[in-house]
Write a sequence for this structure.
């Protein structure tokens, strides 16, 4: 059994989708980020960085893992799926996983901050992060013009990138003209495990984008 500590964020969804795809039994625990639950001592013992997601593998002596990419690799290895063992195939998956970890995630995250959450609209910052995110989307589009999935087969690399790219409108980033990216996004959205995973934790009530932005702005810098 896996204990998943998470919240309604792209990084959190990366792990819940992975768990759903691998059909691994898990229990999720939603942290209240606005109440700084992720900074409490009990959680810092699981993740010293005070961020979600994190997991505890109860079947492995309560082994704790933090950082979404590291969790995804651990789970894929545990289940023997979504991450090849052959050296070159494994490397291709990890390369595209790191592309999300080092590029898509940070750039879209900063676009979110300056486009949605920051009380002052700093247009040069908005332009910088939206344009860089769009450039990264174009890299994905070129790759997907030649491949059905980002690596040889469907993998954790697809899950990681999709969980962020699917929220492009929230970041103010257009995907117009990126036909291969759009095809891939539709294929991902149609996977039952993906649909289930991005509803963990489920929304307990309908919250408008403006209300969500206002709430997130309280803790965007922590």
């Amino acid at each position: 059994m896996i204990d998943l500590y998470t919240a309604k964020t792209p990084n959190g969804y990366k792990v819940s989708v992975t768990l759903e795809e691998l059909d691994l039994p898990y229990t999720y625990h939603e942290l209240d980020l606005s109440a700084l639950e992720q900074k409490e001592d009990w959680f810092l013992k699981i993740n010293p960085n005070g961020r979600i997601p994190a997991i505890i593998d109860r079947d492995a002596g309560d082994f704790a893992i933090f950082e979404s990419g590291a969790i995804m690799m651990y789970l894929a290895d545990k289940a023997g799926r979504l991450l090849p063992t052959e050296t070159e195939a494994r490397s291709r998956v990890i390369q595209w996983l790191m592309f999300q970890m080092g590029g898509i995630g940070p750039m879209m995250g900063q676009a979110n901050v300056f486009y949605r959450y920051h009380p002052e609209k700093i247009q040069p910052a908005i332009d910088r992060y939206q344009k860089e995110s769009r450039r990264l989307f174009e890299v994905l589009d070129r790759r997907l013009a030649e491949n059905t999935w980002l690596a040889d087969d469907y993998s954790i690399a697809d899950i990681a990138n999709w969980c962020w790219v699917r929220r492009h409108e929230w970041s103010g980033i257009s995907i117009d003209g990126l036909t291969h990216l759009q095809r891939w996004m539709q294929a991902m959205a149609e996977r039952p495990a993906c649909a289930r995973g991005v509803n963990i934790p489920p929304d307990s009530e309908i919250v408008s984008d403006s209300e969500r932005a206002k709430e997130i702005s309280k803790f965007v810098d922590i």
About this structure: The first strand starts at residue 2 and ends at 6.
